Amino acid sequence: MLKSIENSFHQIAGLFFPGTEVWHTIVYVVLIILVAIVCDLVCKLLINKLLLPVIRRTRFEWDDHLYDKQVVARLAALAPAFILYAFLPSAFDVDNSWSVLIERICKVYIIALILRFLNGMLNAIHDILSEKEELRYYPVKGGIQTLQVILFSIGFISIIGTIIDESPARLFAGLGASAAVLMLIFKDTILGFVAGIQLSANNMLHKGDWITAPAHNANGIVQDVTLNTVKVLNFDNTITTIPPYALVSGSFTNWRSMFEGGGRRIMRQILLDVNSIEFLDKERLRGFEHNHLIGEFVSQRLQAISAARAADNLFQVEELRVTNSLLFRVYLENYIRQMGKSNPDMLYMVRYLPMAEKGLPVELYLFSTEKTWKAYEGVAADLMDHTLGIIKEFGLRLYQAPGSYDFQLFKERFS
User: Fold this and answer.
1) What's the whole-model pTM score?
2) Span of the secretion signal (predicted)?
3) Is the CB of residue 207 less than 8 Å from the CB of residue 222?
4) Could you give all domains of the chain from N- to C-terminal order, each with its CATH number?
5) Which residues pair with 211 in a beta bridge?
6) What sign for the dihedral angle of Cα 123, 128, 132, 134?
């Protein structure tokens, strides 16, 4: 059938310049090119006018991705390429160098179009798989990129084999001798692929995670995980790219479990002036009985003191005495438990740290139900505002190194 079509083209070309071989060849080539162009236009018309409306009406999404990535159009582009390959070389004699050259050019063109089609297919598959929630924890993009590297490597070798008229199988066999060189060239790709599998298999890193990697100056949200890089958008809007194998071989912090858990930790510290810490007498204690956060504690302690005194247990009386710092600590723990933005089901406490020359450190330890940065800092700030404001009601003072304002007041007082 191809032979009969070829003869028809030669007959049509002979109608223009009969007996003139050169012009016959030119007309034949132009005719084949025009047929290929018409075939290409017809394929595009069928895709846009017939296939596209059908794709848009279907309830499936995969066909939309195939069209958006031009997979169908790239496949249709093979039709005119095969027409050129089938008929152009026959414009010249079999032994003619032009026939050999054009045949090789057509083969290279077809291989390039096939690579283009398969690459578009892989990109469409990536888009389809990326929308599936159950696959979001797998290195889909890294796997697709690995297939693309393999695809283009095979295509490149096939093109070289076509150009030099050598079997691609023999070229592939010759690559075994240069395996060390290939390992060096594709070192980052191989390491990235293996690291991507490790990150996914161990559930270490996902797109959208907040990670910190001080060794790489990274502190932000993972934007993309590819075969060779992990892209992190830092909170100062800079972007850090890290090789995946660097995360596997080194260390980084992933805050995902904090977001998935019950709260984000707040750990703040204030310094009490030890000279302001004192025991409270009975009258001062009764002044706190009406406080809804520590009233019950004060009443129970007063009753225990009275019972110990009645039993003439002086040691227990001394043991049950209450300092303003103890009362302040109990108040803060009850306040933390009842504040709306803390998680009382997780660990919370108010504790003393080892005392230093700057006073007695008091640490507030709790977990906030607000986990996003701004809301979390707001909860911590509200807690500190209340703590700093209430401390005077217990007769306590904060330690603060003297500043210029303190020296100015001192000077005015004694001048």
Assistant:
1) 0.57
2) none
3) yes
4) 2-197 (no CATH), 204-257 (2.30.30.60), 261-278+324-415 (3.30.70.100), 280-322 (no CATH)
5) 220, 254
6) negative
Amino acid symbol at 60: F
